[in-house]
Structures are given as structure tokens and as C-alpha cells.
Amino acid sequence: GFVRLHARTAVRRAAATRPFTVRRRPRRLTTVALGVAGAILALLPSCAGAQGWRTVDVARMVRDTMPLKVRVAYGAGSLTLRAADAPYLYRMQLRYADGRGTVLSQYDTIARELRLGLEVQNANWSGGKARESGELTLGLTRTVPLDLVIDLGATQSTVDLGGFRLRSLVVHAGASETTVRFDQPTPQPMDRIEVDAGAAAFHAAGLANTGVARLSVMGGLGLVDLDFRGAWRRDVELDLTLAVGGGEITIPPDVGVRLSGEKTLGSYDFEGMTRVGSNAWETSGFSAARKKLVIRAKTTVGTLKIIRR
Question: If DSSP codes are grouped into helix, strand and coil, which group holds residue 131?
């Protein structure tokens, strides 16, 4: 259950509680709902009859380094996900409209599963107005092996996972404009990456830094932009399905590429590749290349483009 306290009393008690850290925000607030099991803190606006904003600042310390499944759900607004400062397992700072959704901050110690974010029903977002729907800044530890699942609705999201101990990554991008970056190599090669790009743009940079052997990417109505530059550790296989939107794949010049594809109304633009069959293309010297990328592509409408640089 929840214990309802005056804001000042709640902050005083939260500060003495471990492993959670809660900080008070200077908003027009009257009550605090502090969930001991779920570590949820929601500061309520003082004007009950008017539209207001709620602010959450909640954290948990690292207690061990056993693998953990993390599920992040964010329905509408602006999301920034990055590394948390030591010694935090996570720190979540959330600002959202009163009555907009349900805050998620749940840690299952038995299943070793962490759920964070904000669930929103009937979210709408267009263009650069994501911040008007709220903001979520989430830091996750780099010291614990993670299986990370990100479910996005109508958002503008920037996810920086460079240097994380990721075992797997699954992204459901919804109607979001999403950028996922791996600016540093992961300590160990990742097992898998799966992306459902949804109805907006999806950008991934530094994919070679993940060391992943296989990726599966599905594009909906927007652009899918995949950049495979970085530190190559093993050959990579990419399963790519594009519906109405287009796709761009950037590959270093020293990586051998082979693509087999099926297209309906789409078109191909492959830089530096020659046809080797009815539905296959290769770069020169593919068989002898020390680094290889094998692509299996299906396109319906739109252009698939390969850029070598």
C-alpha cells in the first residue's frame, strides 16, 4: 500500500531510506505518495481543478551485479536515456501533465526485473511539440548486465547506450522520432538487437560498437537510418523489412557487404556494389573480406540505400 504524507515529512523520511534516493522539486505541491515496495514518488499540484504538472525524482542504488531485465515504457513526450552516475542502479526524473498517465517505478527482486517510465493512453504528438507533453530523463547503470526493452508511444527520444553492459536490446518505437547511439564499444558483444521502427524516423549510430552478431529491424512509415561504423568484432547479419518508408545503411569501406533482397514497389541504390544474381548484390572481394555484413532485405514502397564511408 501507499502512505500519504505531507511533502516535507515525506522528503525527510525518504532521505533516510536506502537504497532509494528522492529529491524534492520546487513545484506547487500539496501531497506526496511514497510507495515503499515500488519506490514511486508523485508530487501532486495544489490546484485540483486546473491542469497542472507532476514531478517525480526517484532512484535506487546498485546492490549487486547480477543480470537484470529493464523495461522502459514512455507514452508521450521527450525521452533522454543515458548512463547513471555511480552508485545508482537507476535514476528517473519525470515531468508530466496531471492525469496524463501512470508512473512506473517497480523493482521485482525475485524475477530481477525493473519497470520504469510513464504509461499513457491515447497519446498524440506531432513534430517538435514532444516537450509540451512532458519530459523523462532516465539514467541506468553501466556496471550491471542488462536486457533492455524500450516501448515508446508518441515521443522524441534520444538513447545513448555507449559502454553499457547490454546483453540484448529491443525497441518498439511507435510513432516516435528515435535516435539510439553507441558512441563507445560495449564491454562484451551483445546477443541480439530487435527494432520495430513504427510510424516515424529511427536512427541508430555506432552499431559496430555493439559487437552484435544479428539484428532484426522492421520499418513502418518513416525513415530507418542504420550506421554500422565503429569497432568491428565479428561478422554481422541484418534482417531488414521496410513497409512504406525508406532505409539508409552506412558501412565503412573496408567491410564486405552482401545483400539479398525482395522488393515490390521499392527501389535500390547500392553504392560500390554489383549484382551477383537475380536478387543479390556484393561488394568487390566480399569472400576474402575480414569484416562482413550480410543483409536480407524486404521492401514494399520506398528506397533502400547503401552508403560506404
Answer: helix
pLDDT per position in the chain (309 positions), as tens?
333 333 333 333 333 333 434 443 443 332 333 332 333 333 333 333 345 999 999 999 999 999 999 999 999 899 999 999 999 999 999 999 988 789 999 999 999 999 999 987 655 544 445 556 799 999 999 999 999 999 999 999 999 999 999 999 999 999 999 999 999 999 999 999 999 998 889 999 999 999 999 999 999 888 999 999 999 999 999 999 999 889 999 999 999 999 999 888 778 999 889 999 889 999 999 999 999 999 999 999 888 999 999
Lookup: cell for 125: 504528438
Whether pTM exceeds 0.90: no
**18: number of Cβ within 10 Å:** 8
The SS3 assignment for 98 reads coil
C-alpha neighbours within 13 Å on the C-beta side of residue 189: 13
CA dihedral 104, 110, 113, 117 (to 10 degrees): 10
Task: Give the three cell numbers for residue 80.
Answer: 533522454
Sign of CA dihedral 268, 274, 280, 284: negative
**DSSP bridge partners of 156:** 78, 177
